[in-house]
């Protein structure tokens, strides 16, 4: 039997900070609790927006009407201010002029967001004050798309839904009873945030593993299935993995922003209710603000953690206070590890996935660490003296899982151990130096950990190659003589010399690598001696350095013509 909807009389919704519980006395948004009624547009005070998102996302440049002034959902300016701007928080992309701030205010926008590093903040603040519109500065490290999503999520949190229920677990139980199957509610990270506990309903191993681990098992993750669920207009059937029970699933979305999904297991003893798709659709609407609140809180915690890690590894802030905030001991040993991939610059999503995998694995083995993403690069501060073999195994396994998900070859660069918080910056420099010195890796390469204290020879060569004067000399004599001769005569003397040097001048060993007879190689070296004095120790040292460094410094136009 369908549970009756709860109706509420018309009511005022106070503007509340979702973290502190602070209630703003002015700037109330209005909504109706009548079934099916919509709020439009939801209004939140400027102060609540700033407090909830924090200074890493938004900071005030001018608030002429005070923090209690209300604003509306975000809108990215398309260069054509129109009536639809009224009551919105307008994101002005590019380098807006003071006149554009005034035009936004006249069009009815209640707040404007700009990038402070791209504009004259004082000039725009003066224009905003005169026009009576709030002017906010966006965080430098956020894209406009990310900023829009965060502000949109904040406003979604404030949107009322009905019927009102205590939490997501209660919603899961209601859906399970009405639809006739066990229910799991997941966020966008595939974490099981709530599940039903109705007696007598069938569950399979996948559902049980999700409940126990509070996350969908990795082997069961079907990326295409999840995308299909999130893109569908309503509930759809999911049959993968085939060895588990079928599931009816629906995406939890609002304003084209996804927040999670709801899954109902088809039991063996009884089919789901014919009304299950409609029941799931109603449940998805009711789950939106709850999942949005979880996502917003998760984003806020992540931003705060990453910012604290950034300040600690760069030596910018009170070290002990930052360590305590991150759950690290204020005394002991520390080392920094950074992660890089074979695919060039790391995608923000990939970096976050790697950080999450490493954080979970380290926590599982009770290795104290602060893991996050700093300036787009995933990394960690490892505290204490964990077993070296265990630490390496945990990191390699985590990076292996990241590679399986995203196809890149990940590796870890480990800095040296330091004995004070203030010296974490030294370990950071060590780790970044190792990461930059590692040669390019092909996709599919097994992950590994490279240590600063084990790479002294390679680091020395990399430092020499990175020097401006040395870089210019890499292509000059004596190697240029051989390269030019090869180009003019179709010979392969450069590779011959590289193999000879790599085998410590052992002719039989080098001949084997080159698939030549030793006498043929001796004859070829004799011809090369007609071009270069290979018995000159200084010339030989310079040539060997050029040959080796050429494999470390790859020209932008292509690869080195030497074997790596």
TrEMBL record:
Q: Which InterPro entries match?
A: CdaR-like_regulators (IPR051448), CdaR_GGDEF (IPR041522), PucR_C-HTH_dom (IPR025736), PucR_C-HTH_sf (IPR042070)
Give the protein name, as stated in the record: PucR family transcriptional regulator
Q: Which Pfam families match?
A: GGDEF_2, HTH_30
Residue ranges annotated as transmembrane are none
Provide the family line: Belongs to the CdaR family.
Question: The CdaR GGDEF-like domain covers which part of the protein?
Answer: 319-434
> Domain of life, per the record?
Bacteria
Residue ranges constituting the PucR C-terminal helix-turn-helix domain according to the UniProt record: 493-549
Q: Give the matching PANTHER family.
A: CARBOHYDRATE DIACID REGULATOR, CONSERVED PROTEIN
